[in-house]
Each structure stands twice: as structure tokens, then as C-alpha cells.
Specification:
The complex is a heterodimer of chains A (374) and B (666). With 374 residues, chain A is α/β, with parallel strands linked by helices. Chain A is built from 15 helices and 13 strands. With 666 residues, chain B is mainly alpha-helical. In chain B, helix 15 packs parallel to helix 16 and helix 25 packs antiparallel against helix 26. The chains are: A alpha/beta (374), B mainly alpha (666). Chain A: It comes from Streptomyces abyssalis.
């Protein structure tokens, strides 16, 4: 082999230039097929679960926990392969899924409220549309709002009379905290919010340090972390977000003693909430809480595949082993199959522009938060 | 409590659990040894198994890996000068310098001893503090954490002694790069230029690998020699033991600093190890300090002891508050949840046996891991005597694949190459890279806790909190002290002379010097970047622009200072010696060639995906640059590609995919 360093450099240069030109064309990871899938197609033997969140996080744990049970109860016992594609508030992975996931059931998408909110708030980067995608399995969630005894608030009346703004710690106004901010907006008690906490758990830590005096936690975190505080008189639970039953918000069966936001409003002001604030709150609450975690297939995935998952849910509900072990991961909320609710779910994602605008205006008015900026 | 402790111990020694602990230790060691694959790599490797095992077994597996990942990641840092993980990059200072002198074995034995003791102290600390940790964690609010991050950032000054301007320049630039992505206290995205990929911020592993690893590779490939000179391989073991015994105070201090950094959620392991290093260096007396950065055993002991105790300390917020400090802790949390165990105050009463299983596993794994490393490191230490180009081929493939793991965005490969170029420029210009990394790591936490402090407390309220005052004292007193000293030194010029000789981290004055015009051009480029960033940051909302504004103003001022100094040097100095110029020309060409090879590899990866790219790149590189024999090349290539494929197939390691990657290889 002869050695001519200059020609070598030149050649590498050519390869490099070619490569960088290709690189400029876009991201090679978005390559996929656009072919249609036959109407009678079955669930493939290997299904990739695209998880747009970090390994070990709540959504990841949910998906990985479900995987072996899904295998057991889905026709053809497919193997589920979790694949994490975190980043960009879950937009990166979800975009990739709709671009290249196909309709043959070889990939399914795992979602959480954060994913939904990006779509509902119409972030310009979002390429997915949950009002068209097909819901396979949904899992609800719930949350409890509580306050510090130092505020002196013990009842709805106390909250009405409370003049000073309550202090709240959040992650970001456009993420999970949105529902809480909207609930307080419905109750006409905007909070003095500080954003920048790493997670809901860190906000709870700040609450325990006395840095903030109102907080919300998911029901399962409430039961393990906040209830012990409440027993010692260090926290006063006020209300829960409730759950959706036949299209109506009712008390959360996990915390049956706590009133819903609607009931609390009635106690405060003598009437049920209504108007744009409440409409906007509900528009985000339903997808963000009732259908918080979910497994989705792309638009145009044939019924034969989608229905296979729907029937899985029925079998899961009868699995005693699953019932015994799933408590912590599912947070005490049932799994829904997409079957009864597909249209209802898809409708929930066709957000009324007025509700979205109200939410964005509220964020700007009360919290000086504007979406955007590069 | 004692009952639970002993029953957990008995439980752990049951054969099935022990096997999983060993498996965990084994995979942790392997993942740690591969440069760049630290905690995240271990998680990727173990995840598929965790959800299929019994609780105790799964815990033994995870903890086994977590406890040793930071023992074996030392090896690459010390021997090759390529960070084994982000938090092991601190060992590039003293550990690698020691190895360069041919004392790799001594450096490694110091590291493993300290690592083991640090792990054991961490486990002990965990046992003692778990019942009382709650109030401790709660006593540290946002103001205290803010002061701690400030203290960390002030380390940049400690680490740039000898050339304060260049150190601060690097620190400011690190702070700026750390601010890329979502702002912590506002809904703005900063410096992303519309790219979704940057909205998450730059990944620490990729940054550490680029700035240190790639920069190291291009120079060493160029020089075609081995890392170490001399042949002190066998002699170091006993010296290493003696070093650790002699500096036992530093072992304990390092462990305590690490423990704290782990217990307080929000700082992270990398900041913890650097702070341990910084405190060791800052508290050593002046005369002895000069050996720091040039292969001082204390510069290995403190961070290495902290390295493992950080992970133990991290378990406290994980178990008690459900706040994981890193990827492995998050995995642990997920596994616990899958077994119906939820973190929280009740874990101490309800699941105490689980807590003790975790602690005992940690202690046992620390011992096993260090022992295994001792056995392995004698052959491994020989690596530093291998001709570097031979190692470089595989390292290039591994480094880029490792950097890809966290975000899994192929654009990151280009960013790593750019950072590699930056790292190399900093290296030849004598701009220390340690302050850069500290700035990068602490940028977001500092900003986050500043805004939390400012929003949650009145100024007069938080500034008088006792811990804040203590930390303020730690921050201010040494500065005053050194000022007083300086004033005195002016009167006594002999001392001032010594101050001048204090070189920053042995990074300056290495290899051929670049032309003097560089000392003008480089600060000028930094100045332009800072000014541009300042202008861009004016467009953000008030809570998002404060910190970038401050950082860029300070950065621009420092860059301007460096520029003035550079111009002065340029004017004063005569023309460079011809030999110097010739040496630089050789170096420059060699480095350009190395960069061309790296760029070629990235281009190939874009086209073929990393697996096929390695298959093409390795034979060419090994033949043309490393000048290996064909038989060796075939074996080398097949082993590397096979190992990559195996990791991808069995351990969930993600491989970059190209435009033309065949479907079967996806």
C-alpha cells in the first residue's frame, strides 16, 4: 500500500463533504414506509414501544411494567420492546413515531400529559395529532390540592377570605402544572407561582421546607407522601381533580372524602363553576388527567390490530396477578380500552380554539409566561 | 432496626441474590470501563432484566452496578486521558498526569483504594443517617443550594491559578453553553436557533467526551506515541497504598463532600467530585499545592472517594423523597415502583428490610468492585504503553457511540466534533478546561436556585439563614486571605515570583506552541461569541435573560482582557524561532489529519450507520494511521463491531442509524 498523505486527506475531504451535504438534508432517523396495511393485519410478533421519556421515569416504568402483561393477553403473544427516545418535552420521540412508525402495528407510542399539552397548546414543532391517532389503552390519573396549616385555611370559606396570594412551586407553566393553575383560576384565586423546580417531588420538598404553601400531587404521591404529613397536621387537603364518569366529573374513588374542584367552587361561591375559565380548565383536564398515560397507534392503523389491544384490556382486568401487582404503577386508576371511548378521546383532543386561547391568555396575564422564543 | 439490618444481610447472602449482585457488579464494571458509558449505560444494560426479576434480586442487580460504575470509569480517565464518565473527568488532572509519568499502576491503586473506602463510608453514612436524614435534607432550602452552586462556580478560580484570565474565560464559556435549552425559570428556549434537538440542552457526557476525549485523541494520534513515557508500571502498587494511608484525612473528607453532594438533590455527581477535588486543592498549604494538577495523589484520592459516596448519598433523596439524582437512581425508583414499593417517609417503617438490602448490597458491591479492579488493572495499566493510534481506532467508534446514548440524536456527533476542536484549541492555547466543565455543570442549577431563592424569599430573609452565612464565609474568607497575602507579597517580591510559577493544571506549555497570533485570534473569537450571545439574550423574557446577560458581560470583559494581553505579547515578542515554527507546522498538519479522519467517520456514520461505518473506517484507519498488520486489523475490526452489535442486541445500547443502513440492521 502506497502512502500519499495529501491524496488521503483530499479523499477524506471529499467523503466528508458528501457526508455533510447529506447531513444538511435532514435527519436520517426519520426514514420510514408510507405503505398502507391490509385491513385484516394482525399484531406483529415484535412490537416496539416508543417511549418519548427518560429511562426509569414514571411513564417509562408504566410502559415497562405493562409490557409482559400485554404480551400475555394480546392475541399472538407479541414481544414488546421498549425504546426510549426522550427529549424536547417528548416532542422529538413522538414526532419520530408519527413520521416513521407506520400503520402495521410494529410500533406503538407511549404518552403522558406532557405530550398532550404540547399538542393542545399547539407548539409549532408538534407533528402529531391525537384527534386522529388511534387510542389503544388508556390509564387515568388524579391529583389532590392541599395547603399548609400555617395559612389558616381549613375550608372553602377560609379560602374565599384569604387575601394574600398563596405561593406555589411548579416545573413550568406549560407542563403538568397547567391543570393546577387553571383550577386556581376557576376558583378565582390565582397563586403566586415560582417555576423552575425539577419535578413535582422537589416541589413537595419545598412545601415541607415551608418555601411554598399550596401544592398539588398525583393521588398516588399524595397517599404515600402527603397523607403522613396530613396525619401530623402538617398539611390540609382541600380538594381533588376528580375523575370522569359518563362525561361528568365525580369524586375520585381513591380519595372519596375530598370534594372535587366543582364542589369546592360551589362551597366557596354558592354555585357551580361556569364560563370560559371553567371550559378551558375542563378542556385540558380531560386529556391531561383522565387519559393521562396512554398507548397509541398511528392514524389508519387497521381495526384488526387496534381491536386486538382493546380486547387485551378486558383480559387484563380479570388477571388477578396483575390486579395485585399493578397498584402502585397504575396509581389506583383503571385501564380504559379505546373501544368505548375512541371518539370521546379523539374529541377531547380537538380542543376548542377559545379554550386554548383562554389558557394562553391566562398564563400571560397571571404568570407573565409567553410561549415561544428561540 | 438491628433485626431488619441482619435479616437483610442474611437475605443478601442467599445464593440467588448474590449471583445477581455479582452480575450487577460485572456489568457495572464493564460499562464503567467503556469511555462515556457511565450511569446511563448501566441503566440501558440492566433495564430489560430489572422488570423480570424478584424484588431483592433486581435491587441487588441495580445496586451492584451503581456502586461500581464509578470505580472502573477511572481506568480510561487515568490511563488514556479520556473521561470514563462525566464525573471521572476530574481524574484527568492528577490521575492522568501520574500515568503519563509511567506511574499508571500507582494512580490506579490509589483510585481503587479510595473508591472502595469511599463506597464503604457512604454505606456507613447511609445506615447512620437514614433515620435522621429527613430534617437534614429539609434544612437545606433553595438559598443554601444556591450558595453551594456559587461555591462550586468559584472553584473555577481555584482551578485557574496561574492564569486567572484564561480560567475565568473558560468558566464563563462553560456557564454560557450550560444555559442552552429550556430556561429553568421561564417558558423560553435559549440559543436553540429553532432546533428541537438543542431545546433539551447539550448532554454532559457528550460535552465531556468532546472537550477532553476527542481533543486528546487528535493530539495523541498525531504524535503517534503511547500515553505514558518511562516504564514504572510494576513499581507503583505499594506506593499507591502508602499514598492512601498517608492521606487518609483526604479519603474521609472526600467521602463527606461526596455524601453531601449526593444527599442534596439538584447538584449531581459531577459537581460533587469536582467540589471534592476543589476542596482538597484549596485547603492544602501553599508550598505543597504546586504539585496539584501534576500528579498529586491527593488529587486522585479526594474525588475518587467522593465518586462512590455520592451514589450512596444519592439514595437518601431517592428513597425518602422520591427524587432521583441521576439515571441509575431513577431506574432504582422505577424498579421499586414496579414492586409496589413507593418512596416516602413510610419506607423506613414499612420497608426497612428493603432499605437495608440496598445498603448492604452497596457496601458489598464496593468491596467486590474494587477487588476486581485491582486484579484487572495490572494488565489494563499496560494500555498506557500501547502505541496510541492502535487504541484510537476503537476509541473513536466507542466515543461517538457513547455520546449518542443520552439524546439519541445523530446531530450530536457533529456537535461532539466541534467541541473536540474547541477542546484542542483550548489545550494548545493553555486555556484550562476544568473551569469550563464546572461552569457547564453548574450553570442551570445555579440559575434555578437563584430564581427559586429570589422568588420564594425576601432578600433580608434568606441572606441571614445560618447555613447561608456559613457558606458565604467559606466563599469569602479564603478570598480575603489571599488578598491580604498578595498585599504582603508585594512587599516581599520573593513570594510573588512563586505565584507566577504556579501553572494551571499542567495544561499549558505542553507540546509545540501555536503561532503567537493565536493569542489574539482566540480571545477575539470568544469576545465575538460572548457579544453575539449577549445580543441574542436581550430578546428573552426577563427571567430568562438575567443569567445569560451576566455571564456574557463577564465573559466579554474577560475575553477583552485576554485580547489586550495577547496583543501586548504579540507586540513585545520578536519573531518565533524557526524550529518552533517547524514543530508547530508538523503538529498542525497531524491534528488536521486526525480531524479529517474523525469527520470522515461521522460522514460514514451518516450514510451507513455506525456499525457499517466502523467496518469501513477501522481497517482503513488501522492500516493507514496505526500501520497495523492485516491479520491484527481483521481481528480488531471484527471484535469491535461484534462488541457493538452485541451491546445493541442484548443491552439496549442505541446505535446511530444512517441514510443507507440496511433495514435488517436497524
Amino acid at each position: 500500500m502506497s502512502r500519499k498523505p495529501m491524496s488521503r486527506i483530499r479523499m477524506t475531504g471529499v467523503v466528508m463533504a458528501a457526508g455533510l451535504t447529506l447531513a444538511a438534508c435532514g435527519n436520517p432517523q426519520g426514514v420510514g414506509d408510507d405503505g398502507k396495511t391490509d385491513a385484516g393485519a394482525e399484531v406483529p410478533s415484535r412490537v416496539e414501544m416508543v417511549i418519548p421519556y427518560d429511562e426509569g421515569g414514571g411513564t417509562d416504568t408504566w410502559a415497562r411494567f405493562l409490557a409482559p402483561y400485554l404480551k400475555k393477553h394480546t392475541a399472538g403473544t407479541p414481544t414488546f420492546l421498549p425504546e426510549n427516545k426522550p427529549g424536547g418535552e417528548s416532542i422529538t420521540g413522538s414526532n419520530e413515531f408519527v413520521r416513521s412508525g407506520g400503520t402495521d402495528g410494529k410500533e406503538v407510542l407511549v404518552t403522558s400529559a406532557t405530550t398532550y399539552y404540547q399538542a393542545l397548546l399547539k407548539r409549532p414543532e408538534v407533528e402529531f395529532d391525537f384527534s386522529k391517532m388511534r387510542p389503544l389503552i388508556m390509564n387515568g390519573s388524579g391529583g389532590v390540592i392541599y395547603t399548609s396549616p400555617k395559612t389558616g385555611i381549613k375550608s372553602a370559606d377560609d379560602l374565599v377570605k384569604h387575601k394574600k396570594k398563596l405561593t406555589y412551586g411548579g416545573i413550568s407553566a406549560t407542563g403538568l402544572d397547567l391543570t393546577m393553575l387553571q383550577a386556581m383560576d376557576v376558583l378565582k384565586k390565582p397563586v403566586d407561582a415560582t417555576f423552575g423546580f425539577e419535578g413535582r417531588e422537589t416541589a413537595l420538598l419545598a412545601y415541607q421546607r415551608g418555601e411554598v404553601n399550596i401544592d398539588y400531587q398525583t393521588t398516588s404521591a399524595y397517599k404515600t407522601q402527603v397523607e403522613p404529613l396530613a396525619e401530623k397536621g402538617k398539611a390540609v387537603p382541600l380538594m381533588s381533580f376528580g375523575v370522569l364518569k359518563d362525561g361528568k366529573v365525580v369524586r375520585d374513588p381513591n380519595v372519596p372524602d375530598l370534594p372535587t374542584v366543582e364542589e369546592f367552587h360551589k362551597k366557596m361561591y354558592g354555585k357551580k363553576p361556569s364560563g370560559p375559565a371553567y371550559e378551558s380548565y375542563k378542556a385540558f383536564l380531560v386529556p391531561g388527567t383522565t387519559y393521562q398515560k396512554g398507548l397509541w397507534a398511528n392514524e389508519d392503523t387497521p381495526d384488526s390490530i387496534v381491536k386486538a389491544y382493546w380486547s387485551t384490556v378486558g383480559k387484563l382486568k380479570k388477571d388477578k396477578n396483575f390486579a395485585k401487582k399493578s397498584d402502585s404503577v397504575l396509581g389506583g386508576y383503571p385501564l380504559y380500552s379505546g373501544e368505548n371511548a375512541e371518539q370521546e378521546i379523539q374529541k377531547a383532543f380537538e380542543i376548542d380554539p377559545a379554550a386554548r386561547k383562554y389558557a394562553l391568555d391566562m398564563l400571560e396575564r397571571e404568570y407573565d409566561e409567553k410561549l415561544g422564543g428561540t | 432496626m438491628l433485626d431488619a439490618a441482619f435479616s437483610a444481610l442474611g437475605n443478601l447472602f442467599a445464593l440467588s441474590n448474590l449471583i445477581f449482585l455479582l452480575l450487577g457488579v460485572g456489568s457495572g464494571l464493564v460499562v464503567g470501563m467503556i469511555p462515556g458509558l457511565g450511569g446511563t449505560g448501566a441503566v440501558a444494560m440492566l433495564l430489560p432484566f430489572v422488570f423480570a426479576l424478584e424484588p431483592t434480586q433486581a435491587l441487588a442487580l441495580i445496586i451492584g452496578a451503581v456502586a461500581v460504575v464509578h470505580t472502573s470509569d477511572t481506568i480510561a480517565s487515568v490511563l488514556l486521558g479520556i473521561p470514563g464518565s462525566a464525573s471521572a473527568s476530574v481524574l484527568m488532572l492528577d490521575g492522568h498526569q501520574m500515568a503519563k509519568k509511567g506511574q499508571g499502576a500507582r494512580a490506579l491503586s490509589i483510585a481503587f483504594m479510595s473508591s472502595m473506602i469511599g463506597g464503604l463510608l457512604g454505606a456507613l453514612g447511609l445506615t447512620l443517617s437514614i433515620p435522621v436524614a429527613r430534617p437534614l435534607v429539609l434544612s437545606f432550602g433553595a438559598p443554601e443550594l444556591f450558595m453551594l452552586t456559587l461555591l462550586g462556580v468559584s472553584l473555577t478560580a481555584v482551578l485557574s491559578r496561574g492564569n486567572m484570565v484564561k480560567g475565568l474565560l473558560a468558566g464563563a464559556f462553560g456557564l454560557l453553553l450550560g444555559g442552552i435549552g429550556a430556561a429553568p425559570a421561564a417558558a423560553d428556549y435559549r440559543f436553540t436557533f429553532g432546533s428541537l434537538f438543542l431545546s433539551e440542552g447539550l448532554d454532559l457526557v457528550a460535552v465531556a467526551l468532546g472537550i477532553f476525549g476527542i481533543a486528546e485523541i487528535v493530539t495523541l494520534v498525531g504524535s503517534r506515541s503511547s500515553v505514558a513515557t518511562g516504564s514504572g508500571l510494576g513499581s507503583g502498587w505499594r506506593t499507591g497504598f502508602r499514598d492512601v494511608l498517608q492521606h487518609w484525612r483526604h479519603v474521609i473528607r472526600g467521602a463527606l463532600v461526596g455524601m453531601w453532594a449526593g444527599v442534596l438533590p439538584g447538584l449531581g455527581a459531577t459537581a460533587g467530585t469536582w467540589m471534592a477535588y476543589g476542596q482538597a486543592r484549596a485547603t492544602t498549604r501553599k508550598e505543597k499545592k504546586k504539585t496539584f494538577g501534576k500528579g498529586d495523589p491527593r488529587g486522585i484520592i479526594a474525588p475518587e472517594s467522593a465518586n462512590n459516596s455520592v451514589e450512596a448519598g444519592d439514595l437518601i433523596p431517592t428513597l425518602l423523597f422520591g427524587i432521583p439524582g441521576g439515571a441509575p437512581a431513577a431506574l432504582l425508583l422505577g424498579a421499586l415502583l414496579a414492586f409496589n414499593i413507593e418512596p416516602g417517609p413510610r419506607i423506613i417503617t414499612k420497608d426497612l428490610d428493603i432499605v437495608y438490602t440496598i445498603i448492604w448490597s452497596f457496601a458489598l458491591a464496593s468491596i467486590l468492585g474494587a477487588a476486581a479492579c485491582f486484579l484487572l488493572s495490572r494488565p489494563l495499566a499496560k494500555l498506557s504503553f500501547v502505541r496510541f493510534p492502535v487504541l484510537a481506532g476503537g476509541l473513536v467508534v466507542v466515543l461517538f457511540t457513547a455520546g449518542f446514548q443520552d439524546s439519541e440524536q445523530i446531530a450530536l456527533l457533529q456537535v461532539m466534533l466541534l467541541l473536540g476542536a474547541l477542546g484542542w484549541v483550548m489545550k494548545v492555547c493553555g486555556i484550562p478546561r476544568a473551569p469550563f466543565l464546572i461552569g457547564f455543570v453548574l450553570s442551570l442549577p445555579m440559575e434555578r436556585y437563584y430564581f427559586l431563592t429570589a422568588n420564594l424569599y425576601e432578600f433580608g430573609e434568606w441572606t441571614v439563614r445560618p447555613w447561608v452565612l456559613v457558606l458565604l464565609g467559606v466563599l469569602v474568607v479564603p478570598t480575603l486571605f489571599s488578598l491580604v497575602k498578595k498585599v504582603r507579597a508585594r512587599r516581599d517580591p520573593g513570594d510573588a515570583q512563586q505565584d507566577q510559577e504556579d501553572q494551571p493544571d499542567g495544561e499549558a506549555g505542553e507540546g509545540p506552541r501555536p503561532p503567537r497570533i493565536w493569542s489574539v485570534v482566540v480571545p477575539a473569537v470568544f469576545l465575538v461569541v460572548f457579544v453575539a450571545a449577549f445580543v441574542i439574550s436581550r430578546g428573552y423574557s426577563s427571567q430568562a435573560r438575567l443569567v445569560p446577560g451576566l455571564v456574557t458581560v463577564v465573559g466579554a470583559a474577560v475575553a477583552a482582557g485576554a485580547l489586550v494581553a495577547g496583543v501586548r505579547v504579540l507586540r513585545r515578542a520578536g519573531p518565533q524561532e524557526p524550529e518552533q515554527r517547524a514543530a508547530w507546522a508538523v503538529e498542525w498538519r497531524a491534528v488536521l489529519r486526525s480531524f479529517a479522519w474523525l469527520a470522515g467517520f461521522i460522514a460514514l456514520t451518516y450514510v451507513l450507520g455506525v456499525l457499517l461505518a466502523a467496518l469501513v473506517f477501522l481497517p482503513l484507519f488501522l492500516r493507514l494511521v496505526a500501520e497495523m498488520r492485516w491479520r491484527g486489523i481483521v481481528v480488531y475490526t471484527l471484535c469491535t463491531v461484534g462488541a457493538l452489535a452485541a451491546l445493541a442486541a442484548f443491552a439496549d445500547i442505541a446505535l446511530p442509524i444512517g441514510y443507507l443502513t440496511p433495514v435488517g440492521l436497524l
